Amino acid sequence: MAKVTFWEERCKGCQLCTTACPKKIITMASNINEMGYHVASVTEQKKCTGCGLCVIICPDMVIEVERGREN
Q1: Are the CB atoms for 53 and 20 separated by under 8 Å?
Q2: Which of 3, 33, 6 is nearest to 17 (CA)?
Q3: pLDDT of 69
Q4: How far apart are CA 54 and CA 35, in angstroms?
Q5: Cα–Cα distance measured from residue 12 to residue 59, given in angstroms and rounded to the nearest whole number
Q6: What is the CATH number of domain 2-67?
Q7: What per-residue confidence (pLDDT) applies to 68?
Q8: What is the DSSP string of 38-53?
Q9: Per-residue pLDDT for 71 more than 70?
Q10: pTM of the full predicted structure?
Q11: For residue range 11-68, what is the model confidence (pLDDT) as tens digits?
Q12: In the prediction, which pLDDT does 18 show?
């Protein structure tokens, strides 16, 4: 299982991560950051495979993926 974290205050709402996610679990949240942008968020954390495509495509490096070990 993996955990995706967004640095919301740096997110510019470009939506590139939403298109890159193969599981389609990243969406744009209704909340707005201090810069006035809707921020990305993960809707179903448990479905994240930890592929890191969202991290690779993010131009502002606001996404972190932590991969857990399976027992």
Answers
A1: yes
A2: 6
A3: 55
A4: 21
A5: 9
A6: 3.30.70.20
A7: 79
A8: EEEEES-GGG-----H
A9: no
A10: 0.86
A11: 999 999 999 999 999 999 999 999 999 999 999 999 999 999 999 999 999 999 998 7
A12: 97
35: left (phi over 0), alpha (psi -120 to 50) or beta: alpha
**Residue 65: closest CA among 14, 17, 16, 12:** 17
Domain boundaries, the chain: 2-67
Which class for 38: exposed (0-12), middle (13-18), buried (19 or more C-beta within 10 A)? middle
Report which secondary-structure segment, H or E, holds 67.
strand 63-67
String of DSSP letters for 24-37: --EEEEEEE-TTS-
Cα–Cα dist 10/41, whole Å: 13
Residue type, 56: I
Contact 40, 28 (CB under 8 A): yes
